[in-house]
Design brief:
With 303 residues, this protein is an alpha/beta fold. Helix content is 38%, strand content 14%. It starts with a helix and ends with a helix. Belongs to the AccD/PCCB family.
């Protein structure tokens, strides 16, 4: 009996017991509902292979996708006060910051990196939506200023990739001031005649879209990205009218002239390289050949 209880039964139970499958191995597409294996999703750059829906992409994966050989160098961002207003709602702001830093391993919602893209020098400021919804506070403003200054020093194109819910309410007026600071920083890049390109991802809203995100020399958007200022429901409630189908989506903005192109994620790197090359190439596309000056016709000259 002991042999059956201690040996046979446990072995049989292990054989028939359901195996535990980690939850993060499969991801459900929010549009078509299909389950996609995590490795297949990573290989497709977080684009659903069934319907083509562009799921949000982690900022580090995006940087690795854009830079040559996935290599880039991050810069250390200026230090700022963590909680300048001593803000507290249901939870202290300083505690929210600690939770976000523990979750993401980052100090704030922006990463500034520089490297090569198609052999060309570029500086990229990418937003991390996982850090408090990519909201823009003083630290993010400092990051944008640092990115602009680095682009000027390195004579490089500046690429900004917003993914944000807007200004960070816990920093109040200090957060709103970053709209003006980031705009001034962009102007410094443009004064040096350096390319400033914005890659609009899902979502780009609030004070971010009302400042630097809409000032690019070229505005590129990912398919299906939500881009706007106020939310669609807020607008509908305010104007008391039904909004058009696809309002605030990238394709709608392209149709109405708010963005220059909508590019699938698999084509983004090649498109960005081509755009930067066109904006940086200040010389003629081909050698300039002087046209021969014909001698005047004697009959015409005699007349």
């Amino acid at each position: 009996m002991n042999w059956l209880t201690n040996f046979v039964r446990p072995k049989f139970q292990r054989l028939v017991a359901p195996r535990e499958v980690p939850e993060n191995l499969w991801h459900r597409c929010t549009i078509c509902g299909h389950m996609v294996f995590h490795r297949d999703l990573e290989a497709a750059l977080n684009v659903c292979p069934h319907c083509g829906h562009h799921l949000r992409l982690k900022v580090k994966a995006r940087l690795q996708m854009l830079f040559d050989d996935g290599l880039y160098q991050r810069i250390e961002l200026p230090k700022v006060a963590d909680d300048p207003l001593k803000f507290k709602d249901q939870k202290k702001y300083i505690d929210r910051l600690k939770d976000a830093r523990t979750k993401t391993g980052e100090t704030d919602a922006i990463i500034v990196a520089h490297g090569r893209m198609g052999g060309q020098a570029v500086v990229v400021a990418g937003f991390n939506f996982d850090f408090q919804g990519g909201s823009m506070g003083v630290a993010v403003g400092e990051g944008l200023v640092a990115a602009a200054e680095l682009a000027v020093v390195q004579d490089a194109a500046l690429i900004v990739i917003p993914a944000s819910g807007g200004a960070r309410m816990q920093e109040g007026i200090l957060s709103l001031m970053q709209m003006a600071r980031s705009t001034v920083a962009v102007d410094k890049v443009k004064e040096k005649r350096l390319p400033y390109i914005v890659l609009l991802t899902d979502p780009t809203t609030g004070g971010v879209s009302a400042s630097f995100a809409m000032l690019g020399d070229i505005a590129i958007a990912e398919p299906g990205a939500v881009i706007g200022f106020a939310g669609a429901r807020v607008i509908e409630t305010t104007i008391r009218e039904k909004l058009p189908e696809g309002f605030q989506k990238a394709e709608y903005l392209l149709e109405h002239g708010m963005v220059d192109m909508v590019v699938p994620r698999r084509d983004l790197r090649d498109t960005m390289i081509r755009v930067v090359s066109l904006l940086r190439n200040r010389s003629p596309a081909a050698p300039v050949v002087p046209l021969p000056i014909d001698a005047p016709d004697p009959e015409v000259a005699g007349a």
